[in-house]
Every structure is written in C-alpha cells, then in structure tokens.
Amino acid sequence: MKKIILLMALTLSGCATTDMVYNPNGMNEQKLVKVETLREASAFSFSAKYNAYIMYVYNEKNEEVTKRNALFSNKISEIKLQPGKYLFKVECKSRNYYADTEGKFELLPSKKYQLYCDIKKGKNIFGGSADASVSLKIREIK
C-alpha cells in the first residue's frame, strides 16, 4: 500500500511546475528579468496545443543556473534572472507529443518575457497535416 501511495505521489508531482530566481550578485529585484512559459492546455484536456516547460537554463559561461535534478526536480514555469544572454532548454508538450528544443536569447533589465513553442506543420505518410518540427521563440510581454 505504501508503494502505491508513493508511486501516485511521484506521478502527480511529475506534472507540477515551480518558479525560480537566479540572482547570485544580489541585484535589485526591480532590475531582474522575468521569463515565463506559455501554457495553453491543461494536463487533462484534449487540446492539441503545446505547453512550454523550462528544463534547464545556462548562462554565458555555459553554467547551468537552474541546478535541476532531471529525475526529481519539477519543471520550471517561471524564472527571474539577472540581465544577460542565456540558453534555454525547453520541453514542448501536447496531449500526444513532446519535443525538446532550445534557444539562446539576450534578456534586458526589468523586462518580462514569454517562451513559447512554435510548431511547424508538415504532412504525414497519408498526406494529412502533422506536427513536423518545433522551435523555441520568445516575446516581450507587458
């Protein structure tokens, strides 16, 4: 019985996301950059839209700033960072498919950004429309 409860807890927590702050120099919080992910579909919906989940973030020195454990850490839905250039590794997930993608972006002080998955359509072997590729995009939001 304890194993079943533990398994259920791990399964349910696997869908959870967390927020994070990376501010090693103690910069004024007003100057930090806020990056959030676009989440259009709930985990239990039948939507074909893709949600973006931050898996890892690397700074210009190629240091992973998120310090995630791939097996036991939650995916990141929002992160506050010091201004600079960062490489984001993101999982794009719909009800049926998922893809890993990455993008390098320069983030400006005191701005708010949203990462989202840009899905390109192609044809499947029967000639119907299918999701063919994914790329990571970013936009400034107010």
Q: Which properties best describe this structure?
A:
disordered N terminus, 3-stranded antiparallel sheet, mainly beta, 5-stranded mixed sheet, Immunoglobulin-like, single chain, 142 residues
Description:
The chain contains 1 helix and 8 strands, in the order αββββββββ. Mean pLDDT is 82; it is low at 1-14. A 5-stranded mixed beta sheet has the order 1-4-2-7-8, with no helix packed on it. It has 142 residues and is mostly beta strands. The protein has a single domain (17-141), classed as Sandwich (Immunoglobulin-like), CATH 2.60.40. The longest helix is centred in the N-terminal third of the chain and has 12 residues, at 2-13.
Briefly summarize what is shown.
The chain contains one helix and eight strands; from the N terminus they run αββββββββ. With 142 residues, the protein is mainly beta. It has a single domain, classed as Immunoglobulin-like, CATH 2.60.40.
Topology (elements, then pairings):
Elements: H1 2-13, E1 17-22, E2 33-37, E3 51-58, E4 75-81, E5 84-93, E6 98-107, E7 112-123, E8 129-141
Parallel strand pairs: 1-4, 2-7
Antiparallel strand pairs: 2-4, 3-5, 5-6, 7-8
